[in-house]
TrEMBL record:
The keyword Transmembrane helix applies. Residues 251-460 form the Histidine kinase domain. Keywords: ATP-binding, Kinase, Membrane, Nucleotide-binding, Phosphoprotein, Transferase, Transmembrane, Transmembrane helix, Two-component regulatory system. Coiled coil: none annotated. GO terms for molecular function: ATP binding; phosphorelay sensor kinase activity. SUPFAM superfamilies: ATPase domain of HSP90 chaperone/DNA topoisomerase II/histidine kinase, Homodimeric domain of signal transducing histidine kinase. Its EC number is 2.7.13.3. CDD domains: HisKA (cd00082). It comes from the Bacteria. It catalyses: ATP + protein L-histidine = ADP + protein N-phospho-L-histidine. This is histidine kinase. The chain crosses the membrane at residues 29-48.
């Protein structure tokens, strides 16, 4: 069974909430940007799709446009070649000027099967590089149609004899309307893309401005709430201290009040009645025993008070544990108990009140000794844990009963025999650990032993230094 008492971690929770808000707004801005950037991306995809569709339509148009011309010219050429009975026929020997019409709007090109230029009509002016590009390009294979979006379109048709392909007829044609339409399409595509990008950035600006304004508003509200929470926390801690002091004072009054009432009652009886010597001795013994109880309580209280509040400094927790063990007098140690020290040699320093932390460890270790009636062990371990240091003190003593677990840190609760303690030790230990923004927890199975776990937070000022320390 485990019971935990946690210190004040409200500031840590506030910081976590603030980080959560920042993360939420970052995600919103990211989603907004992605959503807005999708607009030009989708627009680009749409334009590319339309461009592909446009190309296909143009290819179909080109094929229909050149079909009549290529059919007429190609049929004439193929007819001439088919009627040539010479076995040594070559397309290089043909007088192409007689077969090709005189046409200034088109250029007629004849190539052999190796794409070598055989004939080129006059027609319109065309850069020779364009012709070379067409002849050398694998994109314009025989039987395929294509176009140049800058100056001309062209279509192709095979030249064959007896089913054998001898070459290709390529007709290049000017088409001002086609070129103009394609350029207009490109212009509108670019303008559409630019407009889409501008709209996207405007939307992005508006969304970002809206999100930032909302964030600033919530952040201001958060600061206000945070400030109010700090004020409330201060009041709460102050009231908690008052409640603790009240409980403590009530406990002191009760623990002193009972024996004090007994002393007063015994004194009054001795003063008022004539008693035998034996009866007087009994009352004197009772007064003495009750006085010893009060004296023991005062001494125990003063033992804790001697650890005065000191300024918090950089300390090594291993050193403090070793000092705490030395603070326990030999008569309070069970020498049959094996003390096992497992102290990390690479612990960072922490910022702490050395005297009060030492008092807390001394009390827990002393309780561990007292819980072991014969042979046993106490195992003390220190280690770096998450954002702090963890100290585990385990003993093989008789453990704590389940019904006592929830009261173990209450003031004046004790499981020790009468006269051996008043139950202030663990209560004050808990107060000390909480004052360092730490936590203390206890796990115990009755008859098997107890484990106390203390977690202390690291401080940025002291977290950088390390020492190899061991007892």
């Amino acid at each position: 069974m485990e019971y935990v008492k946690k210190g004040s971690r409200n500031r840590m929770n506030i910081n976590k909430n603030h980080k959560g808000i920042n993360k939420e707004f970052s995600n919103q801005i990211l989603l907004g940007m992605i959503s807005i950037l999708l607009i030009p991306i989708l627009l680009i995809i749409l334009l590319m799709t339309q461009q592909m569709s446009y190309h296909k339509k143009m290819e179909s148009f080109i094929s229909n446009y050149g079909k009549e011309i290529t059919d007429v010219v190609a049929n004439n050429i193929n007819y001439f070649i088919s009627n040539d009975e010479s076995n040594k026929f070559s397309i290089k020997d043909i007088d192409w000027d007689k077969l090709i019409p005189d046409d200034t709007d088109n250029i007629y090109i004849i190539v052999d099967i190796k794409r070598n230029l055989i004939y080129r009509s006059k027609g319109f002016e065309l850069d020779s590089n364009h012709i070379k590009q067409i002849l050398n390009s694998h994109n314009y294979a025989i039987k395929n149609n294509g176009y140049n979006d800058d100056q001309f379109i062209f279509v192709t048709s095979e030249i064959s004899k007896d089913g054998q392909v001898l070459g290709t007829l390529i007709i290049l044609s000017k088409d001002v309307n086609l070129s103009s339409n394609y350029k207009q399409f490109q212009l509108f595509s670019i303008l559409g893309l630019l407009i889409g990008v501008i709209i996207s950035f405007k939307l992005l600006y508006k969304v970002s401005d809206s999100i930032i304004s909302r964030y600033v508003s919530i952040n201001d509200s958060y600061k206000k709430v945070n400030h109010e929470k700090e004020i409330y926390l201060e009041k709460y801690l102050r009231s908690e201290k008052l409640v603790t002091m009240g409980r403590f004072a009530s406990g002191i009054a009760h623990e002193i009040g009972n024996p004090l009432s007994s002393i007063i009652s015994s004194t009054q009886i001795l003063k008022k009645y004539e008693l035998s010597e034996e009866e007087k001795t009994d009352y004197y013994d009772k007064i003495l025993n009750d006085s010893k109880k009060i004296d023991l309580l005062i001494k125990e209280f003063l033992d804790f008070r001697k650890y005065k509040d000191e300024a918090k400094i950089k300390v090594n927790i291993n050193d403090i544990i070793c000092e705490s063990i030395d603070n326990i007098s030999d008569n309070k140690k069970n020498h049959k108990v094996e003390l096992i020290m497992d102290l990390s040699k690479s612990l960072p320093h922490i910022i702490a009140d050395k005297s009060r932390i030492s008092m807390a460890f001394t009390n827990i270790i002393q309780n561990a000794y007292q819980s072991i009636h014969d042979k046993g062990f106490i195992h003390i371990r220190t280690l770096k844990f998450e954002d702090g240091i963890r100290i585990r003190i385990r003993d093989s003593g008789h453990g704590i009963k389940e019904e006592d677990m929830k009261k173990i840190f209450d003031p004046f609760f004790t499981t020790k025999d009468v006269g051996k303690g008043f139950g202030l030790g663990l209560f004050i230990c808990m107060q000390i650990i909480h004052s360092h923004n730490g936590t203390i927890s206890v796990h115990s199975n009755y008859g098997e032993g107890t484990i106390f776990t203390i977690d202390l937070n690291l401080d940025k000022e002291g977290s950088g230094e390390k020492e190899n320390t061991n007892c």
